[in-house]
C-alpha cells in the first residue's frame, strides 16, 4: 500500500501591496520543495483575499468570521498590510494584529541574517559571520491596544490621548524563557534583554525583575540588560556581541527593522509569529510592509518572504528542507542575482526562479 503524503494546510493572506508578489514567490519555493520530496509531504493552500481592497468593499479588513475560517489551518502565510486608502492603525489592527493577538502568537522571531553578496552599511570588511535573532514579545506591551482620546470640552488644541502599555508577569516570563531556550541552542549562548526601565518605571521594571529571576534558571547562558537607546548603538557598533535579543513589542519592532537595514535591506528579513503551544496556527511573514511606492512593479525583494517560508518549514519539522531553502537563498545572493533594494537589477520573479534552481544544489 502506498503511503499518503503528510499534507500541511496553509492559509495564504497576501493582503496589500508587495505582499501579493512576495507571497506568490514564497509559495512557488514551497511548491518546488514539496515537488522534490518524492511524495513525502504536500501543501494544501487556501487563499484569503483580505486587506485594504477588501476593506473598500466590505468596511472591514477581513471577513467577520475570518478568525474562525483560519483557526484550523496548520499555518498562515502572510504578506504585508497597509495601503494609503486606509488609516494605518485601522489596517494593522483589522488584520495583522487581530490575527497575532487572537491566536496568541506571543513569540515573534525575527532573525537578523547577513547574506553573501549583500552590502551592509556596517563598517566591517566581512559581515557574513554576523547573525543574531530579535525575539519580540508579540501579545501585549505597547501594542496592547489600551487607551483613548478625549475631545470633550477642551477647546482647540486641548485634546488628550492616553496609550497604555500593558506588561504582565506571565507575559514577560514566557517570552523571556523562550529567548533563553533559543539561546541554549545557539553557538553563542547569550540573551540581551532590552527595556527603557530607567524612564518607564512600572512595566519595564517588572520586565527587568522577571528577566533577573528567569536568568537564575539558565546559569549556562550569558546575560545582559541594556536600555533600548544603548542597544540601538550596539547594533551598529558591536553587533558581534549579539546572539538573542529579547524586547517588548514596540522596542523589538524598531530594533528588528534596524537589524534588517544593517543586514542590507528590510526586504531580506524573515519572521515567524508563533503560538508555541500550538493551540492556534502560527503566522509566517516578511518583516517588511506593503511598500506602496514599488507595489505591482515586480521589483520587490522576495527573500524576506522566502526566508519566512523556511521558518514555516522548520515549524512543520521539515528542518532539512528549511536548510535547503536557506542555502538556496545564500547561493542566489552570493551569485549576484539581487533585486534593486540590494544593488541588483533582477526582478522578483528572477530572484525567485534562481532560488528555486539553487534548491537542487
Ligand atoms: N509583513 C509585516 C507587515 O505587514 N508589517 C506592517 C506593520 O506596520 N507592522 C507593524 C507591526 O509589526 O506590528
Protein topology:
Elements: E1 6-15, H1 18-35, E2 41-47, H2 52-58, H3 66-70, E3 75-80, H4 88-102, E4 107-113, E5 131-137, E6 141-150, E7 160-166, H5 169-184, E8 190-195, H6 203-215, E9 222-227, H7 228-237, E10 244-247, H8 249-262, E11 270-274, E12 282-286, H9 303-315, H10 319-334, H11 348-358
Parallel strand pairs: 1-2, 1-3, 3-12, 5-10, 8-9, 8-10
Antiparallel strand pairs: 4-5, 4-11, 6-7, 11-12
Helix pairs in contact: 1-9, 1-11, 5-6, 7-8, 9-10, 10-11
Bound molecules: glycylglycylglycine.
The site of glycylglycylglycine has 10 residues, from helix 4 and strand 12.
Catalytic activity: (R)-malate + NAD(+) = pyruvate + CO2 + NADH
Family: Belongs to the isocitrate and isopropylmalate dehydrogenases family.
Domain Isopropylmalate dehydrogenase-like: 9-355
Can you identify the CATH class of the largest domain?
A: Alpha Beta
Query: Low-confidence parts lasting 5 or more residues at pLDDT below 50?
Result: none
> What percentage of residues falls in helices of 4 or more residues?
25-40%
Ligand roster: glycylglycylglycine
Strand content: 15-25%
What is the number of helical segments per DSSP (H or I, 4+ residues)? Answer: 11
Sheet with the most strands: spatial strand order = 2-1-3-12-11-4-5-10-8-9
The gyration radius over C-alpha positions equals 21 Å
CATH T-level fold name of the largest domain: Isopropylmalate Dehydrogenase
Number of strands: 12
Q: Name the average pLDDT.
A: 96
The CATH superfamily of the largest domain is Isopropylmalate Dehydrogenase
Pairing-aware structural class of the strands and helices?
Answer: alpha/beta
CATH architecture term of the largest domain: 3-Layer(aba) Sandwich
**How are helices and strands ordered from N to C?**
EHEHHEHEEEEHEHEHEHEEHHH
Strand count, sense and barrel status of the largest sheet are: 10 strands, mixed
Distance between the termini: 32 Å
Gross geometry = globular
**Total domain modules:** 2
Amino acid at each position: 500500500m502506498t503511503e499518503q503524503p503528510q499534507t500541511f494546510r496553509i492559509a495564504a493572506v497576501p493582503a496589500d501591496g508587495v505582499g501579493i508578489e512576495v507571497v506568490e514567490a514564497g509559495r512557488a519555493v514551497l511548491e518546488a520543495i514539496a515537488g522534490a520530496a518524492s511524495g513525502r509531504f504536500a501543501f494544501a493552500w487556501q487563499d484569503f483575499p483580505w486587506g485594504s481592497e477588501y476593506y473598500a468593499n466590505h468596511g472591514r479588513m477581513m471577513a467577520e468570521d475570518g478568525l474562525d475560517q483560519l483557526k484550523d489551518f496548520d499555518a498562515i502565510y502572510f504578506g504585508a498590510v497597509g495601503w494609503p486608502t486606509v488609516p494605518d492603525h485601522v489596517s494593522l489592527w483589522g488584520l495583522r494584529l487581530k490575527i497575532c493577538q487572537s491566536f496568541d502568537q506571543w513569540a515573534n522571531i525575527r532573525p537578523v541574517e547577513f547574506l553573501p553578496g549583500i552590502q551592509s552599511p556596517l563598517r566591517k570588511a566581512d559581515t557574513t559571520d554576523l547573525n543574531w535573532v530579535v525575539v519580540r514579545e508579540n501579545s501585549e506591551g505597547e501594542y496592547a491596544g489600551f487607551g483613548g482620546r478625549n475631545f470633550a470640552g477642551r477647546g482647540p488644541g486641548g485634546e488628550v490621548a492616553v496609550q497604555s502599555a500593558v506588561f504582565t508577569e506571565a507575559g514577560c516570563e514566557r517570552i523571556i524563557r523562550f529567548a533563553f531556550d533559543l539561546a541554549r541552542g545557539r553557538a553563542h549562548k547569550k540573551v540581551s534583554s532590552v527595556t527603557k526601565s530607567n524612564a518607564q518605571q512600572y512595566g519595564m521594571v517588572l520586565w527587568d525583575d522577571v528577566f533577573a529571576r528567569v536568568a537564575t534558571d539558565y546559569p549556562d547562558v550569558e546575560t545582559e540588560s541594556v536600555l533600548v537607546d544603548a542597544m540601538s548603538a550596539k547594533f551598529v557598533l558591536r553587533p558581534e556581541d549579539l546572539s538573542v535579543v529579547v524586547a517588548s513589542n514596540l522596542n523589538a519592532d524598531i530594533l528588528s527593522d534596524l537589524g534588517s537595514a544593517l543586514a542590507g535591506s528590510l526586504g531580506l528579513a524573515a519572521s515567524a509569529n508563533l503560538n508555541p503551544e500550538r493551540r492556534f496556527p502560527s503566522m509566517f511573514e516578511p518583516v517588511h510592509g506593503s511598500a506602496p511606492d514599488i507595489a505591482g512593479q515586480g521589483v520587490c525583494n522576495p527573500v524576506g518572504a522566502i526566508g519566512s517560508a523556511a521558518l514555516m518549514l522548520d515549524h512543520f519539522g521539515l528542518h532539512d528542507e528549511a536548510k535547503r531553502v536557506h542555502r538556496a537563498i545564500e547561493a542566489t545572493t552570493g551569485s549576484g542575482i539581487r533585486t534593486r533594494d540590494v544593488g541588483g537589477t533582477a526582478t522578483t520573479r528572477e530572484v525567485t526562479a534562481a532560488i528555486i534552481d539553487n534548491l537542487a544544489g
